[in-house]
């Protein structure tokens, strides 16, 4: 199912390139983004839509995504999210270690100064 605004022949040829059933660009020339439906008829169903949809542009590019196990783009995005989550966890551990070292350093410096002046 594909809903699009009327387009000129140059726009039609530009947006007719397909990649595994999904267009690479819409009539705006932008790559579609993966979104999740929040309608009562299709709650949680994934679809590819124009990034400019409902923000003043006239592009209504829309196509349902394949089931997640069949869509390589979704799997790639899940893998990327997993890698980013691991990197975030590593960063959080490094931050906690740096904070511990800093607190220890300031505590030690405070104790040394306290001993020196007392």
Automatic annotation (TrEMBL):
Q: Which UniProt keywords apply?
A: Membrane, Metal-binding, Transmembrane, Transmembrane helix, Zinc, Zinc-finger
Q: Where is the GRF-type domain?
A: 26-68
Q: Name one GO molecular function term.
A: zinc ion binding
Output compositional bias ranges, type Low complexity. 7-16
A Pfam family: Zn_ribbon_GRF
Task: List residues traversing the bilayer.
Answer: 95-114
Which InterPro entries does the record cross-reference, listed alphabetically? Answer: Znf_GRF (IPR010666)
Q: In which domain of life is the source organism classified?
A: Eukaryota
Q: Does this UniProt record's set of keywords contain Zinc-finger?
A: yes
Q: Where is this region: Disordered?
A: 1-24
In its UniProt entry, what is this protein called? Answer: GRF-type domain-containing protein
């Amino acid at each position: 199912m594909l809903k699009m605004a009327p387009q000129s022949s140059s726009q039609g040829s530009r947006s007719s390139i397909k990649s595994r059933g999904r267009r690479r660009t819409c009539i705006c020339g932008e790559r579609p983004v993966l979104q999740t439906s929040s309608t009562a008829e299709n709650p949680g169903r994934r679809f590819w839509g124009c990034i400019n949809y409902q923000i003043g542009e006239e592009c209504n590019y829309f196509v349902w995504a394949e089931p997640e196990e069949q869509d390589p783009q979704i799997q790639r995005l899940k893998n990327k999210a997993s890698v980013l989550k691991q990197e975030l966890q590593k960063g959080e551990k490094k931050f906690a270690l740096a904070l511990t070292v800093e607190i220890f350093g300031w505590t030690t410096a405070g104790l040394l100064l306290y001993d020196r002046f007392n």
